[in-house]
Write a structure and sequence with these properties.
Keywords: Glycoprotein, Glycosyltransferase, Golgi apparatus, Manganese, Membrane, Metal-binding, Signal-anchor, Transferase, Transmembrane, Transmembrane helix. The longest helix is centred in the first third of the chain and has 25 residues. The chain is of the alpha/beta class and 462 residues long. It is built from 14 helices and 14 strands.
């Protein structure tokens, strides 16, 4: 091949690469729109980056923010009038034990400055739970959810309890939404209660306010290997934590999630408007679709952008590769149809107004949606601890009790990272096996309680 031909071929390849990059950029841009199209009630704070800082309350944004645009929050710490504002309000000698006296719980150990006000003005409270290792996710949750938030914390032993207190001080000093919106509750294992009462701590500020995850990792890494090994051997009481978080909400409606499930922008306002305008339904559970997204992209600002990411392979339904039954009944194929301009709900897609996309018609036992429902739903069975049969048994009981599951749009939640089976820990499967053995007794009790066998699912073991 002549030098001239090689040069032409090389230039062609470079031109194709530039074209592909340009097309990808434009594909990932949301539809431009006039902000006046969006009702005032649906405007919200926008924090689309992973490591966020303190967000001033007067900064507002709209659905039209492109993915690379975000607010530049202040680096200043929030002033605290007195150090005791950050001391947990509890006496470790007291507390409330669960039915098997395995865990001790404490309600409202530290309450946000606006939690009561937000609870009285909103119809729904976000309830979530976590151990220390994942608590950094609360920063983004608190910035995105503008209503009241109930957070159940888990802590074991003196080392972990001290690290937890230090990190809470850091969160409340750095991030206005955490200081204002959150009601913290606490659970501890009876086998490893701390010996020291709560006390005042200075916030760890080695990384400033801009890196909440790095600050937390620094605290966790200082915990002894002995304690870390103990944590690996002992199960996390997920259902205890879910019940604790839910019952520390003060609203009729509750949105129960896990700490690493991040609400879409404007979700709280959209849901409040939806519930006010919707006919009362005590046995309705409104499903919020959940996607997992590549950590290299910014948080999608709206449904249109999320669907574009999914079509590029940068987002997909939660657990799609590791356990497809987890969200399958939501019917994501149906959910994405409304982003087409000819859809009858396309205007709602643009404005962010929540509506019912469709009903869940193919329920299956292993379904584990994140949903909003009245706080009269069955509690999570606390026999199931660790991983496996924790959320799905509660959802299954709701289904047997006659609840209807209705999928909402254009709202959604996000989990960071595209999951694979290789990333799943071996200990998760061991816990799953233990919980599976308890399921037979659970089935019998549900059958006795509701005295019917909807779609024959009681006798089906998956």
């Amino acid at each position: 091949m002549s030098n001239h031909s090689r040069t032409v071929s090389l230039l062609s390849v470079i031109a194709l690469c530039i074209i592909n990059i340009t097309l990808t950029f434009f594909l990932l841009q949301p539809r431009t729109c006039d902000p006046s199209e969006i009702p005032e009630e649906l405007k919200y704070e926008a924090v689309t980056t992973w490591d966020v800082e303190s967000q001033p309350e007067d900064n507002k944004s709209t659905q039209c923010l492109p993915p690379h645009t975000y607010l530049n929050p202040s680096m200043n710490l929030i002033n605290s009038s007195h150090s005791r504002e950050n001391i947990l309000n509890l006496d470790i000698r007291l507390g409330r034990y669960d039915n098997r006296r395995l865990f001790k719980t404490f309600d409202t150990v530290l309450i946000g400055t606006r939690f009561a006000e937000l609870s009285s003005t909103s119809l729904v409270c976000l309830a979530t739970q976590t151990s220390l290792e994942k608590l950094h996710s609360l920063v983004q949750v608190a910035h995105h959810w503008t209503g009241s938030i109930s957070v159940a914390l888990y802590s074991a032993g003196d080392e972990e309890f001290e690290a937890l207190q230090k990190y809470i001080v850091f969160l409340r000093k750095c991030y206005t939404p955490v200081l204002e919106r959150i009601n913290f509750s606490l659970a501890m294992p009876r086998s490893k209660l701390p010996s020291k009462q709560p006390r005042s701590f200075e916030p760890p500020m080695d990384f400033g306010c801009s890196r909440p995850e790095a600050t937390l990792n620094d605290l966790v890494n200082k915990i002894s290997k002995e304690h870390t090994n103990w944590r690996v051997r002992n199960v996390y009481p997920q259902n205890h934590m879910r019940n604790l978080a839910r019952k520390n909400c003060q609203t009729d409606w509750v949105f129960l999630t896990d700490i690493d499930i991040i609400p879409s922008l404007g979700l709280a306002n959209s849901i409040n408007l939806f519930l006010r305008d919707t006919e009362r339904c005590d046995k309705c559970a409104y499903v919020i679709p959940t996607y997992e997204i590549d950590t290299r992209v910014r948080f999608p600002g709206n449904k249109t952008e999320l669907v574009r990411l999914a079509r590029k392979g940068l987002a997909r339904p939660f657990h799609w590769k590791v356990f497809i039954h987890n969200q399958y009944a939501t019917n994501f194929t149906r959910w994405v149809l409304d982003v087409a301009p000819e859809s009858k709900n396309y205007k709602n897609i643009i404005t962010g107004k929540a509506y019912i996309s469709h009903n869940v018609t193919d329920f299956e036992f292993l379904y584990e949606p994140f949903y909003i429902a009245k706080d009269i739903v069955p509690p999570h069975d606390e026999r199931f601890m660790g991983y496996g049969y924790t959320r799905n048994t509660q959802v299954y009981e709701m289904f047997i009790a006659g609840y209807q599951f209705k999928v909402l749009s254009p709202v959604y939640t996000i989990h960071w990272g595209l999951q694979t089976r290789k990333s799943r820990s071996v200990w998760r499967e061991r816990q799953n096996i233990i919980n599976r053995r308890q399921f037979e007794q659970f089935k019998k009790e549900i059958y006795t309680k509701y005295m019917h066998n909807t779609l024959g699912l009681i006798n089906t073991f998956y």
